[in-house]
Amino acid sequence: MTLHMTKTQKVLRFMGNNTVPILFLIICAFGIPLSGYSANYLVSEVIVRIARNSFLIVSLLIPILAGMGLNFGMTLGAMAGQIGLIFISDWGIAGIPGMLLAMIISTPISIILGWWCGKILNMAKGREMVTSYIIGFFMNGIYQMIVLYGMGAIIPIRSNALVLPRGYGIRNTVNLIGIRKSLDNLLTVRLFGIPIPLVTFAVIALLCLFVLWFKKTKLGQDMRAVGQDMEVARAAGIRVEHTRIISIIISTVFAGYGMILYLQNIGTLNTYNSHMQIGMFSVAALLVGGATVAKANIRNVFLGVILFHLMFIVSPMAGKNLIGQAQLGEYFRVFVSYGVITISLVLYEVRKKRDRGLAGLVLAAEQEETV
Amino acid sequence: MKLNLTRTFWIRTATIALILVFSVFLFFIGKQHTVLVDNKAVTVNGVELKALQLVEVEVNTLGSMELAARDRDKFDVTGQKHKVTVIYTDANWEEHTIVRTFRIPLMQDMVMILLPALVANPEGDQSLWLENYELPTYAMTAPAEEPVVTDDLAVLVEI
To answer: Which UniProt keywords apply (chain A) (predicted)?
Structure first.
């Protein structure tokens, strides 16, 4: 039995379920004319950002499937990817071989970090997001210790361009000129004058297909079951803790690869900050796409990248044209990226309570019918 | 601990070994080198060879460049085996083309092709016209000290 809703209620429900994307659509609708950018410029910028960020955001999907919420621990994978990039920069390995080698180096590091993160998250069931967020900060300390004090002193680094003047530790920025846009420029077609990096899109498409296929596998179904109800899944013979750890490992490994893809597009590695920013922005983009803590799909990824980054592109210029200061736009976009996470989390809780209330009403109506 | 030599164990071991071999392969094909092409007077085996008036040089298919006497330029290449093409005109206005392949040592970052030596010994061993090059110490500017910002919020402490 279902509760009958009026058209207005249905519209309100739809808007309630899609508040964040609608909010962003409104911001973009106001921001685009104010920025004064041409459609061609905006489309080409959005395409660059889809190619740059999608892989990272897709890496967040599998832990959500397993009921572990938004994996802020993806920064661990990003750190692993960066370590791989530091090594290939030191060895002078360029192009696609350099990228592949960085991925190979990052994989075991990501697996170990993901396994460790998953173990801790199993001890903090129900509080996975905040735990993974704090794990990111904790691991950042260890990463800094290795990169700032270990590299050059214990771990051999030959290149003077990488090592700090004191003789150990990696510089603030690492030039990735050897692999810069090596994947993006491998095969590019121009559509209405807009360059489309076909190979990068093919790689992202492959990952999306992998996620879709993975959901249908035994492990994927186990993850879904664990995500819905851990106790029921356990009673059905699923190794709940093991399944959760695997979901985090997969996410961390993909986050490492995503970071390599992201940085090959940028061409510069901000050694001590890149990974911390990327976790926050990826989560925010996914939420902007209409995902929730418990449900996300590939559609959310792409809608999120487009809306979130469109706002990123237009807000500085819109701020400048509106108030005369580009800085205001910068503040605005940082404020919005943190704000959107807050709004999404609050809305998720509100929706959960509302759905529980609705379920109660349905139950009451069913009981009345029975009586 | 007893090692369980099951089929799965061997498949995993083989996969790891395969990935390691692939990594080494990537290292070999992806290693970047700088090839300097130098058109200055040079002494080879006690014989002084003059710089060429004008020479066109290309490494692999990276685009050709023209060098006048005393010019030096560079190509960035990946991998160890490469081809150099040199086109020059002699005193009788006859154009000559020399195509040679050469091999760069794996861990050598920079090598220099001595164009007058290559033109004088087009069939000679590569050691006559290709030398390993290390950046002279005076060319390395002392890197500036840079503060490492590991915490964006650290600035708040100073306020």
So the answer is: Cell membrane, Membrane, Transmembrane, Transmembrane helix
Q: Looking at the whole model, is its pTM more than 0.90?
A: no
Q: Identify which of B29, B143, B148 has the shortest CB distance to residue A272.
A: B148
Q: What 3-state class would DSSP assign to A172?
A: coil
* Residue A2 in domain: no
Contacts for A324 with CB less than 8 Å, ≥ 6 apart:
none
Q: What are the strands, taking DSSP E only, across chain B?
A: 32-39, 42-44, 47-49, 54-59, 65-68, 71-78, 81-89, 95-103, 110-114, 130-132
- Give chain A's domain count: 1
Domain-embedded: residue A1: no
Chain A contact for B15 (CB, 8 A cutoff):
no
Q: Which residues contact B142 (CB under 8 A, 6 or more apart)?
A: A165
The domain spanning residue B53 has which CATH number?
2.60.40
In Å, how far are A15, A18, A82, A220, B93 from A11, measured between CA atoms? 6, 11, 45, 33, 85
Q: Chain B contacts of A93, Cβ < 8 Å? A: 26-27, 30-32
What 3-state class would DSSP assign to A191?
strand
For chain A, give the mean pLDDT. 90
Contacts of B20 (CB under 8 A, 6+ apart): none
**Type of residue found at A197:** P
Q: Which domain holds residue A131?
A: 7-366
3-state secondary structure of B41: coil
Judge whether B17 lies within some domain. Answer: no
Question: Which of B30, B145, B148 lies closest to A148 in CB terms?
Answer: B148
Within a domain: B115: yes
Beta strands in chain A (DSSP E): 173-175, 188-191, 194-197, 268-270
**For residue A158, is it within any domain?**
yes
pLDDT number for residue A253: 97
Q: What count of Cα atoms within 13 Å lies in the side-chain half-sphere of residue A245?
A: 14
Q: What chain B residue is nearest to A274 in terms of C-alpha separation?
A: B150
| pLDDT classification of A19: cutoffs 50, 70, 90 | confident
3-state secondary structure of A254: helix
B145 shares contact with chain A (CB less than 8 Å): yes
Q: In angstroms, rounded to a whole number, what is the distance separating the alpha carbons of residues A259 and A52?
A: 9
* ipTM entry: 0.83
